Amino acid sequence: MNQQLLLQEALSYGRPFTRYGKPAGYIPELAKIDPNRLGVAICSLEDGSIITAGECDAYFTMQSIAKVMSLILAIEHNGFEYVFTKVGMEPTGDAFNSMVRLDQLTDNKPFNPMINAGAIAVASCIRGSCLAERQQACVDFARLLTGNPEVDIDFSVFRSEKATGYKNRAIINLMKSNGIIDGEVEEHLDLYFSICSISANCKDLSYFAAVLANNGVDPRSGRELVPLRVVKLVRSLMVTCGMYDYSGEFAATVGMPSKSGVGGGIISAPIGKCGIGVYGPALDVKGNSVGGLKVLEYLSDKMGLNMF
Ligand code: GLN
Question: Which residue is closest in CA terms to ligand 1's atom 4?
Answer without folding.
Answer: 116
